[in-house]
Fold this protein.
Amino acid sequence: MRDQDDGSGVLYQLFSMIVNILGSPPLPIPFPFPTAATLASSSSAPSPQVSPIGFAGLFIGISFAMMLFGTAIFVIGFMLMPLIIALVMLFYLARIVSNLSHLASIVIVPSSKIVTAKIRSSLNGAKAVK
């Protein structure tokens, strides 16, 4: 529950910063927590206007951060790929060993039910031919 609160807190701060920078009017939907835009509108201090260059810089910074996080996640996944392949190969090896041991147990110690069923079927087939 604590991790969820931390994540929502980060998203809340990011959202309030973007809304504050953009200087948009307060949203008509009431949120359970006050946003920076509603706090700014309630105070008498005017909100600073953002120049087009600052606006473009904001979105360049956001896209750059997203590229860095995407690259970091890709590198982590690329580094973990040999581990995933090794685990898959280990599971295949375990399945092959299990099948071989099952086959060996059938050959070495045949079940009496299977052997008697084969003997009976062969005897019934031999009687029917004669």
Observations:
- The chain is about 80% helix and 0% strand.
- Residues 7 and 128 are 78 Å apart (CA to CA).
- The helical segments are 2-22, 36-42, 52-108, 112-129.
